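Tutorial, part two.
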Amino acid sequence: MDGATDIDDITRYAEAALKGLPQPFRDICADVVLQVTDWPEPEMLSELGIEDRLDLTGLYDGIPVTQKSNVDPSPFPDTVWLFAQPILDEWRTRKNDTLEDLVQHIVVHEIAHHFGWTDDEIAQIDRWWE
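Running the prediction step on this input gives:
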């Protein structure tokens, strides 16, 4: 796979994951912007305290629906970021999962943050990383 194809494939898989969410979750995520890029920005890594850029495959950037207010609307759209190179590195390391399955899992994880779930809460029900 070349770089453009990787991002195109990851984008296609991520869009399918969003479209595959059950109702009413799909409607609640209708305004979430999907961004796929090769690498996370250094500022993102710094804010999260992450030193190795391969450690960040996805990121939810926004205000969870549990914290939104009609009185104080968000100045920016909620965004799910996917980082192609860390995703591809994870996929090559895992070997037993398809790239599509990995991307779908990352998208669902980030959407859980959109619904207000913390990493610890997601880990309680998510057996993917065992």
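The domain at 3-125 is CATH 3.30.2010.20 (Zincin-like). In part three we will examine how such features are distributed along the chain.
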